[in-house]
Amino acid sequence: MGKGKLAKFAEMKTMKNVFEYPFSVVDNVPFTMKGHWREQYFNNDNPIVLELGCGKGEYTVGLGRLFPNVNFIGVDIKGARMWTGAKQALEEGLDNVAFLRTNIEIIDRFFDPDEVQEIWLTFSDPQMKNPRKRLSSTYFLERYRHFLVDGGIMHLKTDSNFLFTYTRLMVEKNQLPVEVCTEDLYHDTPAAIVDSPILSIQTYYESMWMARGLNIRYMRFHLPHEGQLQEPEEEIELDDYRSYHRTKRSSLKTAK
């Protein structure tokens, strides 16, 4: 690990808005704030919104600026990236923004039932080879149900046609209520959000994707507690890239 990363990890341990509970320690270090985020950290009764896979925390911080009466928590396991958003939130005095460094697979260990009102999935890894790792899969949606209010809102914002299509098929198969669904957020903006301040938040990589001519896709749907969730069975065309700098390695053209 480089000196820069080591310095960031060391500084994060001193940040009051960062809570670090990676999978390797969570069983041995009790998380006493579960069910008490509002009174023990935010000191208010405002709604709690999570951004899962927050990366550098640009979106979490951006939401915190726009909605001072909502509490936002960015979640990711990569601390060196998270440092950027955590430091910025402290410098700007955003008391409604916090960060949790942990594995999303165990996210339900940190929140009590009905403690969270909304979840954002922003530019998540589409995990084209492994359905279970997709953050909109039944594996994760069932975990979200443990702490998201009944009918809580899910936001998906992505450059990936694969992940967007997979999530749309998931929503359709399970008849989850959809509020907004567009394959081109900035050029085919649905009337329901045409005046929404969320359109003003663009992460660094989002701007880069747009510069390359890729559409930004957005979906907002509700996740009820009732009903057994099922995976879609359709074959989906794979994205022709894996990340900003890498093209797709596999010769496969579709996947479920």
Automatic annotation (TrEMBL):
It comes from the Bacteria. Pfam families: Methyltransf_4 (PF02390). It catalyses: guanosine(46) in tRNA + S-adenosyl-L-methionine = N(7)-methylguanosine(46) in tRNA + S-adenosyl-L-homocysteine. Substrate binds at D159, T203, Y204, Y205, E206. GO terms for molecular function: tRNA (guanine(46)-N7)-methyltransferase activity. Its EC number is 2.1.1.33. Catalyzes the formation of N(7)-methylguanine at position 46 (m7G46) in tRNA. This is tRNA (guanine-N(7)-)-methyltransferase. It comes from Hallella faecis. The gene is trmB.
